[in-house]
Design brief:
By secondary structure, the chain is mainly alpha-helical. The chain has eight helices and two strands. The chain has one domain: Four Helix Bundle (Hemerythrin (Met), subunit A). A two-stranded antiparallel ribbon has the order 1-2. Helix 2 runs parallel beside helix 4, helix 2 runs antiparallel to helix 5 and helix 5 crosses helix 6. It starts with a helix and ends in a 9-residue tail after the last helix. The mean pLDDT is 96.
């Protein structure tokens, strides 16, 4: 996996996160039952998991230290710290070739980084919609995530990661089709 993809996905989420001020943390998101704070907490948690998992630690090794609300009193500062550590872990020589031990199996580091990149891209759209930021995603990232997820979308849906696909018609663009297959309606508004 090209290192630039995860870097660009992190940057894209960060751009939307910069639009979140004190009054927007409780805003609804396209993720059912998640407000903005819960969504951001999830994504920051993903980044915080990257260093130990890419080092070869298991979920059991990490334990519950990344459970619950990890954003603290300054979510933007927590984001900045998590990003720095995640970037460093992802760019270490051999990171993509290491075995990553996830709760649902072992994967090459490159596949794991593809999963995290997919999550960042999809949740960038969710966050953008929730806070009124630009919801147009980087076309290169959309193409990567579409190629990465499409062959395994039913497995992700079966695991509860995505809702039922939304019908958007054959003329929809790739971004709209990608989001629709993850259960997101292009018409969603808070």
């Amino acid at each position: 996996m090209d290192q630039a993809l995860i870097t660009n996905a992190i940057d894209g989420f960060g751009q939307r996160l910069s639009a979140v001020d004190a009054g927007k943390w409780s805003a609804a998101t396209p993720c059912q039952d998640w407000d903005v704070r819960t969504l951001v907490n999830h994504v920051v948690g993903e980044l915080l998991w990257m260093p130990p998992l890419l080092e070869g630690k298991t979920v059991a090794d990490v334990g519950d230290r990344l459970d619950g609300d990890i954003l603290g009193a300054d979510p933007h500062a927590t984001w900045t710290s998590a990003v720095a550590d995640a970037r460093a872990a992802a760019s270490e020589p051999g990171a993509q070739d290491r075995t990553v031990h996830l709760s649902f199996g072992d994967f090459p580091g490159g596949d794991y980084l593809g999963q995290v990149t997919s999550d960042l891209v999809i949740h960038s759209w969710d966050l953008a919609r929730a806070v009124g930021a630009s919801d147009r995603l980087d076309p290169t990232l959309v193409e990567f995530v579409d190629d990465f997820l499409s062959p395994q979308i039913d497995a992700w849906r079966g695991a509860g990661a995505f809702g039922p696909a939304v019908d958007v018609g054959p003329d929809a663009d790739t971004q709209t089709k990608l989001l629709a297959q993850t259960g997101r309606s292009p018409d969603w508004t808070p």
